């Protein structure tokens, strides 16, 4: 393990180094009755435990006027590799949402649950309830390997099952080993932090977050090109032959800072099923040793690879592995979206994918999503498989169990007629909980889509799938730069518009308009959709058309994104 130069460590690295393996003073902060917050330095550590301190931004101005501290609250993110959740776990998480959080569950773009609006007195009880449900939140955030994604629904095929198994195995293998989580949240007896060892991460953990996804073609639902490390299943006669390996994807950037950019992952080669865990570990270790610990905006693996070159990275990885990756095998993706409604799997069981607009599970109006899914959890004998697009699949339904589930879907108004544009869209959380949001996203995209649907219908494009993603800031939590239409928050009510990405996430979009509001967004898109309707080739996707028609240039590499 290379020791980083202590003189160049950024502030978060210094907090980590003093933290006694992620303990800091979190435990003291939790019982401090004078504030709803915890110490600022503990905020950096809290992430490793799967939580962020936030405040309700809708209330900020009013509380400032009243000279009150912000309405502090906590977001908790569950670790759920492969997005697999049993009905019992669903019921327990639903209870926690009601007892400790804001009464909603939020399905994320990384196949797990978030709770919002947890006040300090409820914080530890919520964490304990999650553990009592058999789940945890360890490393759901922080400078470590995060929730590992897998193509949704392990019941769909043996390859999907293998992807889910690998997601769980990698997640376990790369968990931090510190006892801090058990001590702070679960009242476990304290151990001496000085005697603890993090065999994979070392004392400073990683320079930045690290993300892994595992895909089963032709679905690119995990968006392999956006992950730090991806595995793509390669099939041989219906069996898993191994995995293609990709490295160096990422979405986050900062407006106006050209040194930051989204980047698509590079294909490195192929490994056998037995080699996959070692590959994951050693990719993490290379980044641990060479990632930038002085500048957090330059600390993701994508920059390590761009600075040193893919060939250097592959050689470093292979020297640590002690074997060379085989040449990558052919693969084909054709979409990164979900298939909705009932589908039958090869074993005869049924799977029902439910559209959850922007991942928010709440009881609103006639569509009582939270109550309906709770009732389904009481009778469902299969899995709840969270998708990578903020939706949920009721997986593994026996034919004789279908009618009961269908009756509940109807009773709670869960099935909703929505346009293809809406079904394939994603929005990040943004306001009012996200501290970094510059504009609305989850709360606003539904209304914008209603307007865009009219344009799309007038163009006769209602049956043409187009991907649209919105985020409230350039960090890219809904992976916008690989959606055919992307809107990225710049200021309240204003967005940058990016166009021309590949339909299954294989090409970055390009900046098209800056800092525009709703009318200008509709005005910019309308003539392009009209041209697309008339001039497109058979089967051509919107993003491909825009590049062919010269509306935007294809982005060759992330570094060229802003030009
Ligand atoms: Fe994210 C930070 C929400 C997926 C890139 N993300 C945040 C925070 C925690 C804001 C903060 O740091 O204070 C957001 C909390 C909002 C809230 O109130 O809940 C947040 N990110 C989300 C979620 C919930 C969006 C959603 O609508 O589902 C997703 C949770 C994933 C999970 O379950 O683990 C989420 N975030 C992503 C993705 C997509 C992905 O991973 O596939 C990305 C882009 C991919 C990538 O990492 O490159 C992403 N989030 C970021 C970044 C920019 C990272 C960078 O390299 O620059 C930040 C800010 C940061 O890390 O400094 C961020
Ligand atoms: Fe917040 Fe920005 Fe992520 Fe949206 S993209 S959740 S606004 S950090």
What is shown here, in short?
With 563 residues, this protein is α+β, with helices and mostly antiparallel strands. The chain is 31% helix and 18% strand. The chain folds into 3 domains: 144-336, Sulfite Reductase Hemoprotein, domain 1; 341-419, Sulfite Reductase Hemoprotein, domain 2, CATH 3.90.480.10; 421-560, Sulfite Reductase Hemoprotein, domain 1 (2-Layer Sandwich).
Commentary on this structure:
This protein has three domains: 144-336, Sulfite Reductase Hemoprotein, domain 1 (2-Layer Sandwich); 341-419, Sulfite Reductase Hemoprotein,Domain 2 (Sulfite Reductase Hemoprotein, domain 2); 421-560, Sulfite Reductase Hemoprotein, domain 1. Helix 7 crosses helix 9. It is an alpha+beta fold and 563 residues long. The strands form five sheets. Strands 1-2-5-4-13 form a five-stranded antiparallel sheet. Strands 3-16-17-12-11 form a five-stranded antiparallel sheet. It is built from 17 helices and 22 strands. The chain is globular, with a radius of gyration of 23 Å. The mean pLDDT is 97. Strand 4 and strand 5 (113-118) form a beta hairpin. Bound molecules: siroheme (SRM) and iron/sulfur cluster. Residues 428-430, 434, 436-437, 441, 471-473, 475-477 line the site of iron/sulfur cluster.
């Amino acid at each position: 393990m290379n020791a980083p130069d202590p003189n160049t460590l950024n502030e978060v690295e210094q907090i980590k180094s003093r933290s006694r393996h992620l303990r800091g003073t979190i435990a003291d902060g939790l019982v401090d009755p004078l504030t709803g917050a915890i110490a600022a330095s503990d905020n950096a550590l809290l992430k490793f435990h799967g939580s962020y301190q936030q405040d309700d931004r809708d209330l900020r101005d009013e509380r400032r006027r009243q000279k009150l501290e912000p309405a502090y609250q906590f977001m908790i993110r569950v670790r759920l590799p492969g997005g697999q959740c049993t009905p019992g776990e669903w019921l327990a998480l639903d209870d926690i949402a009601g007892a400790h959080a804001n009464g909603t569950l939020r399905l994320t773009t990384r196949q797990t649950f978030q709770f919002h609006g947890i006040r300090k007195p409820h914080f530890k009880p919520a964490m304990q309830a999650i553990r009592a449900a058999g789940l945890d939140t360890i490393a759901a955030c922080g400078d470590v390997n995060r929730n590992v994604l897998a193509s949704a629904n392990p019941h769909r095929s043996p390859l999907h099952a293998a992807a889910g198994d690998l997601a769980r195995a990698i997640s376990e293998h790369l968990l931090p080993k510190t006892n801090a989580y058990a001590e702070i949240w679960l009242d476990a007896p304290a151990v001496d932090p000085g005697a603890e060892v993090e065999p994979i991460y070392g004392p400073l953990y990683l320079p930045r977050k690290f993300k892994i996804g595992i895909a089963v073609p032709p679905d690119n639902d995990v968006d392999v090109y956006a992950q730090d490390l991806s595995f793509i299943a390669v099939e041989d006669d219906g069996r898993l032959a191994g995995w293609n390996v990709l490295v160096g994807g990422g979405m986050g950037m900062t407006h106006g800072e050209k040194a930051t950019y989204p980047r698509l992952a590079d294909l490195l080669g192929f490994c056998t099923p037995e080699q996959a865990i070692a590959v994951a570990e050693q990719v993490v270790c290379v980044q641990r040793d060479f990632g930038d610990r002085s500048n957090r905006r330059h600390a993701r693996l994508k920059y390590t690879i761009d600075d040193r070159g893919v060939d250097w990275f592959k050689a470093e990885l292979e020297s640590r592995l002690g074997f060379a990756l085989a040449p990558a095998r052919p693969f084909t993706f054709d979409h990164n979206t979900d298939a909705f409604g009932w589908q039958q799997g090869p074993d005869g069981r049924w799977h029902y994918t439910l559209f959850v607009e922007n991942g928010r599970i709440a009881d609103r109006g006639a569509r009582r999503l939270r109550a309906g899914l709770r009732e389904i959890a009481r009778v469902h004998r299969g899995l709840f498989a969270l998708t990578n697009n903020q939706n949920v699949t009721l997986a593994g339904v026996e034919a004789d169990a279908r009618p009961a589930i269908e009756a509940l879907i109807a009773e709670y108004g869960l099935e909703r007629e929505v346009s293809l544009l809406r079904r394939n869209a994603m929005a990040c959380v943004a306001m009012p909980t996200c501290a970094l949001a510059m504009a609305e996203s989850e709360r606003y995209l539904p209304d914008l889509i209603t307007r865009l649907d009219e344009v799309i219908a007038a163009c006769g494009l209602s049956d043409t799938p187009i991907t649209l993603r919105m985020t409230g800031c350039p960090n890219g939590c809904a992976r916008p730069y690989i959606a055919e239409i992307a809107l990225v928050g710049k200021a309240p009510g204003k967005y940058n518009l990016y166009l021309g990405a590949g339909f299954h996430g294989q090409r970055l979009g390009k900046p098209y308009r800056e800092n525009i509001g709703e009318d200008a967004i509709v005005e910019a898109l309308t003539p392009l959709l009209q041209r697309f309707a008339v001039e497109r080739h058979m089967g051509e996707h919107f993003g491909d058309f825009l590049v062919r028609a010269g509306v935007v240039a294809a982005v060759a590499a992330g570094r060229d994104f802003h030009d």
